[in-house]
Design a protein that fits this description.
- The chain has 11 helices and 6 strands.
- It is an alpha+beta fold.
- The protein has a 6-stranded antiparallel sheet.
- β5 (198-210) and β6 form a beta hairpin.
- α1 runs parallel beside α5 (97-139), α5 packs across α9 (275-291) and α9 (275-291) packs antiparallel against α10.
- The longest helix has 43 residues, at 97-139.
C-alpha cells in the first residue's frame, strides 16, 4: 500500500509538471503563430478565423511538443521533489532508484497512449480539415486540399501532379513516357476527375515523338488508366509528417509495389511507432540530471540543460533522417540511434550516482 501510494504521489507530480509545461509550450507557440499568421488575412479569412485555424491545429502541436514536454516536465517534477528532499526521504526509507524510476514511467505510459491515439485518429483528420477550411476561406469553395505537388513513377512512365482538391479533382497533371532514355510521349491535362470508380482526364494535350518529329494532338476527355485511387493520391501529395502511422505504412507498401523507395514514409512511420522508446529515453536523461551530476544545482539550471539535451536529440534525428535516404541504411536506425544514445547516457549517469 505504501509503495502504491508513493508511486501515485510521484506520478501525480510528474504528470502535473508535464501538463503545465505542455500548456506553456502550446500557449507560446499559439501566440507566436497567431502574430505571424495575421499577415495572411484576406477575404473571409480574418483575425478570428486565424485563431480558429490555430485551434484546429492544436492536436498537431500537442504531438510535436510531447517529447520536449515529457523531458522538461520530468525534470521539473522530479526536481521539485528533490529540492524539498522528498526523494532523499524515499531512498532513506528503502525505496530503490529503480522503483522511483518506475513510478516516473507510469504517467509516461499514459502520455504515450494519448500521443499515439492523437497521431493515428485525431491529428490526420484535424490537419486535413484545418487546411481545407483555411484555403476555402481564403479562396472560396472548391479550394485546394494541398498546396504542394508530387511526382510518381510507374515503370517507364513518370507523373507530375499539381494539386488535389477536396472534391477529388486533380489539377495540373502531366505524364512523361520513356523508352529507355528517350522521351516517347508527353501529356498534360488541365484536370482529372474521379467518376464511377475511374479517372477522367479533361483538357488533354498530347505530344508524341516519332522518327525525329513531334505530333501534337488535343482531346477534350479521355480515361486515365492507373492504379492510383484518390486515397493513394492524397497520401502522395499530403505531407508525410501529418499522416497516421497506418497511412504511412500503407503508402510505403504501395511505393514498394511500384518498385520505388519507401524510405521517407517508413522514417515517419517509425518515428511515430517508436515514440514510447523515445520518451522513455528522455525520462532516463531527466532522472539522471536529478539524481546524477546536476542534483545539487538550481532547478533553472537543470531545465536549461534539459532543453539543450532535447535540442541535441532533435537535431540528431534531423541529421540521421536524410542520412538514411542518402546512405541507404534502415530508417529504423535513424530513429533508434538517438533514443539509444540518450538511454545509454542516462543509464551511465544514473549508475555513476549509485
Amino acid at each position: 500500500m505504501i509503495a502504491d501510494r508513493l508511486d501515485r504521489y510521484i506520478a501525480r507530480h510528474v504528470l502535473g509538471a508535464i501538463l503545465v509545461v505542455q500548456m506553456v509550450l502550446l500557449g507560446l507557440d499559439m501566440t507566436i503563430s497567431y502574430i505571424n499568421d495575421l499577415s495572411d488575412v484576406k477575404g473571409d479569412y480574418g483575425a478570428l478565423q486565424v485563431l480558429m485555424y490555430l485551434c484546429m491545429r492544436l492536436p498537431w502541436r500537442f504531438y510535436q511538443y510531447a517529447p520536449v514536454a515529457v523531458l522538461i516536465g520530468a525534470l521539473v517534477g522530479l526536481g521539485s521533489m528533490a529540492s524539498s528532499n522528498e526523494l532523499t526521504v524515499m531512498r532513506a526509507a528503502g525505496r530503490s532508484l529503480t522503483r522511483i524510476l518506475w513510478g516516473v514511467m507510469k504517467p509516461i505510459i499514459l502520455v504515450v497512449v494519448v500521443v499515439l491515439i492523437v497521431a493515428e485518429y485525431i491529428n490526420p483528420v484535424t490537419e486535413q480539415y484545418a487546411t481545407a477550411w483555411r484555403l476555402e476561406k481564403m479562396q472560396g469553395e472548391g479550394a485546394l486540399l494541398t498546396e504542394s505537388g508530387g511526382w510518381q513513377r510507374d515503370g517507364d512512365t513518370y507523373y507530375r501532379f499539381g494539386v488535389i482538391r477536396a472534391d477529388d479533382v486533380v489539377l495540373d497533371l502531366a505524364r512523361y513516357r520513356f523508352d529507355g532514355r528517350e522521351l516517347q510521349e508527353a501529356m498534360s491535362a488541365q484536370r482529372a476527375s474521379w467518376r464511377d470508380g475511374g479517372w477522367v482526364l479533361e483538357g488533354v494535350a498530347i505530344t508524341r515523338f516519332e522518327d525525329g518529329r513531334s505530333i501534337a494532338t488535343r482531346v477534350d476527355q479521355m480515361p486515365w488508366e492507373t492504379q492510383l485511387t484518390p486515397v493513394e493520391l492524397d497520401r502522395l501529395l499530403r505531407r508525410l509528417a501529418i499522416q497516421a502511422p497506418s497511412e504511412l505504412w500503407a503508402h510505403a507498401q504501395f511505393l514498394k509495389s511500384q518498385g520505388q523507395s519507401a524510405t521517407q514514409p517508413l522514417l515517419y512511420f517509425w518515428q511515430k511507432m517508436l515514440m514510447p522508446l523515445t520518451m522513455a529515453s528522455l525520462v532516463l536523461v531527466a532522472a539522471s540530471f536529478v539524481f546524477g551530476p546536476l542534483r545539487t544545482v538550481a532547478a533553472g539550471t537543470r531545465v536549461f540543460y534539459g532543453v539543450i539535451t532535447g535540442l541535441v536529440f532533435k537535431y540528431l534525428q534531423d541529421l540521421l533522417a536524410p542520412a538514411s535516404t542518402l546512405f541507404g541504411f534502415s530508417p529504423v536506425f535513424a530513429v533508434l540511434a538517438p533514443a539509444l544514445i540518450c538511454a545509454a547516457a542516462g543509464f551511465y549517469m544514473l549508475r555513476r550516482s549509485g
